[in-house]
Amino acid sequence: MDLHSILLDISKGGESASKAFFCFDERFRRAILKYLMRLSIAKSDSEDIIQDVYVNVFKSANQATNFASAEGWVWSIVKNTLTDHLRKKGRYGARVFDDQDMLENIAAPESVEPPGVVDECVQRGVEDFSKAMPDRATAIQMFLDGLSIREIATRIGRTDQATTQYLYESRKRLAPYLAMCGEYIRV
Predict the structure, then answer these.
(1) Integer CA distances (angstroms), 66 to 7, 72, 156, in order
(2) Long-range contacts at 164-168 (CB < 8 A, ≥ 24 apart)
(3) Read out DSSP for 63-94?
(4) Phi-psi region of 14 (alpha: psi -120 to 50; beta: other; left: phi over 0)
(5) What is the mean pLDDT of the chain?
(6) Which of 24-33, 88-97, 175-184 has the highest mean pLDDT?
(7) How far, in Å, CA of 168 to CA of 130, rounded?
(8) How far apart are the C-alpha atoms of 129 and 121, rounded to whole Å?
(9) Which pLDDT score, from 0 to 100, does residue 52 have?
């Protein structure tokens, strides 16, 4: 059963959703757990995050059809759920998770200052970046809002491949604006 079919069945509810959930769990639980372990997330926290991911998938499975890649949609939910979890725990600083994090072994940062200080610092950096490079900031925001590469490409008038490269370069150009927040974060 392909992922689009699984998500479609989940969105229908009832008996088909139960069967589809089993398929979804078999397909993703181990991969998500492995990803979280590479990020040095505690096992107990990982289980909480996985449960939250499942809840989020069930709530919005009907939206998966709006994305070019159902798998990309699932991983965006994983990344967003992880980010929310780390924020609640006060462990999310200037670190922005991107697709490359799926492949790298990184440790989640821990905040030395209260989360509000880091959030303010990041917000100032993003505002400065938005003033200096509004087009790039808009593209990054569309990506963070969950738009697919294809949707972003259509909106900014580029090919999918050019959009992927543009987003990569935009994130690199954003980094210096967030570097000032490094003093608040212990990696």
Answers:
(1) 12, 11, 18
(2) 166/136, 166/139, 167/139, 167/140, 167/143
(3) GGGGSS-HHHHHHHHHHHHHHHHHHHTT--SS
(4) left
(5) 77
(6) 24-33
(7) 16
(8) 12
(9) 92
Residue among 105, 121, 126 at smallest CA distance from 40: 105
**Burial of residue 41, with CB atoms counted within 10 A of its CB: 0-12 exposed, 13-18 middle, 19 or more buried:** buried
CA atoms of 130 and 137, how far apart (whole Å): 5
Task: Please give the structure tokens belonging to residue 115.
Answer: 């989360």
Tell me the whole-structure pTM to 2 decimals.
0.49
Residue spans per domain, the chain: 3-89, 111-186
* 151-162 core/surface letters (b: 16 or more CB in 10 A; e: else): bbbeebebeeee
The domain 3-89 is placed in CATH, from the list 1.20.120.1460, 2.60.40.10, 1.10.1740.10, 1.10.10.60, at 1.10.1740.10
What are the backbone angles phi and psi of residue 186, rounded to the nearest 5°?
A: -110, 120
Token pair for residue 43? 């096992």
Question: CA–CA separation, 178 vs 94, rounded Å?
Answer: 7
In this prediction, residue 130 carries a pLDDT of 84
